[in-house]
Specification:
Two copies of one chain form a homodimer.
Chain A: H1 7-13, H2 20-27, H3 31-39, H4 46-59, H5 65-70, E1 77-82, H6 91-103, E2 107-112, H7 117-129, E3 134-138, H8 144-152, E4 157-160, E5 171-173, H9 176-189, E6 195-200, H10 206-221, E7 230-234, H11 238-248, E8 257-260, H12 263-275, E9 285-287, H13 294-297, E10 304-306, H14 309-324, E11 333-334, E12 338-340
Parallel strand pairs in A: 1-2, 1-3, 3-4, 4-5, 5-11, 6-7, 6-8, 8-9
Antiparallel strand pairs in A: 10-12
């Protein structure tokens, strides 16, 4: 619960957040015009609107006075924005995140961006406007505007599900490229020469791009031409995984092993293989990524990459709590992801 | 986005929401004491704390002045509280809910209560304090305090996933009892006489209780003794479903058909049956509920109840938007749930 006694403190400090007046001053229009731009843009000229929106962005203004007042005090509410709730890939990590927060008296609110950066940007603004003390975000890919906004509003955030030495932001996760390389090596160990990949959309998804690079790394090291990797990009659903396998089976040469960007796609690929009368793994090998529950209930069970969901979620909560408490958090945390061999990977057909 | 121009209006109307002072006056203590009760209860005597909390509840006070100010205006943020994100049972409905809201410029924030009423109560207070215009809730079961709070704060809400003629609150959903009765009848049509049920915890979960009643209704109608139904209550996870089947297989008489409270439990039961060398459906029939994607990827595919996820989610959004816009919504919406027969239900072994 919050400290109502901080009400006055909150109001005194409210000036630290940009105000409607600041936006009006910077864009050289009246506050009424700024208000119209934000609430009823169709009645404002395109030119005025562009000028006002430029000022809104430059100042990091969130059009909500509640947030401005709240910025100076804790709400004990954290936000998380995940790309999807439609399948369970973020569920276990998020559950661990929430449990750790709850032990510290924090309520978690979650938004789901459907892998759309512009929607995520809106949701971040909304969570900040609603007074979220800190945010959990998935992966580094997002618009510069979003990062600008977070910086200007000084909202602590942690990036999860990735570890990328090239990025300076504080993150907790595993190296997607290294993890997928390990799995690809295991596939190549089974004698497969012709590989396929069913991937999530690569644009705006650093995890997906790194997984692709991991396969290419492994192919290169084994003297295979990485440009021969057959790639299909699709959405993270079972039916998309099934369709994508059907597409890959039309390519020449036909892949003998299909690596999937996650377990959900792999479950779909298994369904399609069964439908086409292909035996897994005798006729074709199929692998997943994530090691969520679905990996064990499909038949054959999936060879996949085990992602440290719970440690990642709980660790992200600890990092965010430390940041919110004003401690210096300087180091990203790298966790291990390991290959789990089950029955969906076998030797290449001879 | 919000109307910053409403800032003053918001402040003028703030008095409509209960203040810290109101709580102090009603409980006959200083505002500092109220503040301590809310923020550092261990330093306050139990008696004082009880008196203050009584006043907090009676007044519907949310300890956050931001919320009080926001109560007088729209934030274009709706909240949803679902019992779990750990599996996909609410995912598709929630996605449809979010998409309909998005078309109307509303951002959705979600909280997950882990089926715990006291946590849900906290999350509702937090969403209201953060300015949510309206709420989606699952099922009717929750504490009277929670309903009191919603009423006092005049937050529009819709109950989803149920239709129960005995409840006056506006809801959109299907009749869980009727739906499960239909499925149980189908099971009995296959000659099964000895039934088992793997159910979610019945307390605090009206959907689970109604599903149980539906099975009993069907048994009664066919002249079977409903007290003979073997029931195991557990959590909604795959591994719990597996354990629960193992337990049921020790009961006497051993059930020849096991109905599961949802598809996730049924997937677990299938795994356990396979582990024990039982063929489904030749040796034992297993059914699900929900018809989420998992129902089709397990082997054999699940006979289950198809829940109108998308219509329910989109419909809930429409109802809430109407309420938020001040329209009179007087009628709950009942949707159909239908039985889908796949391969996991067969004739009783002879």
């Amino acid at each position: 619960m919050n400290a109502p006694s901080q009400r006055n403190r909150g109001q005194d400090k409210a000036a630290e957040s940009p105000t409607l007046e600041d936006v009006a001053e910077r864009s050289g229009v009246s506050t009424a015009t700024v208000s119209r731009c934000l609430n009823n843009p169709s009645v404002v000229s395109e030119k005025t609107r562009a000028r006002v929106m430029e000022a809104v962005k430059a100042l990091g203004y969130a059009p909500n006075f509640g947030a401005r007042a709240l910025a100076a005090k804790r709400t004990n509410t954290f936000g998380a924005i995940i790309p999807t709730m439609e399948n369970a890939i973020f569920a276990r990590g998020l559950q661990a995140f929430q449990e750790e927060l709850e032990r510290n008296g924090i309520t978690l609110l979650v938004a789901s961006s459907s892998y759309r950066p512009e929607l995520e940007d809106k949701q971040i603004q909304s969570l900040v406007a609603r007074g979220a003390d800190a945010l959990l975000l998935i992966g580094h890919d997002r618009t510069p505007d979003t990062y600008d906004f977070l910086e200007k509003r000084q909202i602590p955030y942690v990036i999860a599900w990735v570890h990328d030495d090239n990025e300076a932001r504080i993150s907790i996760g595993f190296d997607n490229r290294k993890a997928m390389k390990l799995l690809a090596e295991r596939v190549l160990d089974h004698g497969h020469q012709s590989l396929g990949l069913i991937s999530a959309q690569l644009e705006g998804n650093d995890r997906a791009r790194h997984r692709l690079e991991g396969i290419r790394d492994a192919m290169k090291e084994r003297g295979l031409d990485p440009s021969k990797l057959q790639i299909t990009e699709t959405q993270y659903t079972i039916s998309c995984g099934a369709e994508a396998l059907a597409t890959l089976l039309h390519s020449d040469p036909k892949p003998t092993a299909v690596l999937c960007g996650n377990d959900v796609l792999a479950a779909g690929a298994l369904l399609e293989a069964r439908k086409q009368g292909l035996r897994v793994p005798q006729d074709i090998s199929i692998t997943g990524f994530d090691d969520i529950e679905i990996a064990e209930i499909v038949s054959p069970a999936l060879t996949t990459v085990h992602v440290p969901h719970s440690n990642m979620g709980a660790g992200a909560a600890k990092l965010l709590l430390a940041m919110r408490n004003g401690e210096d958090v300087e180091q990203s945390v790298e966790l291990e992801a390991t290959v789990v061999e089950r029955d969906s990977l076998g030797n290449a057909p001879t």
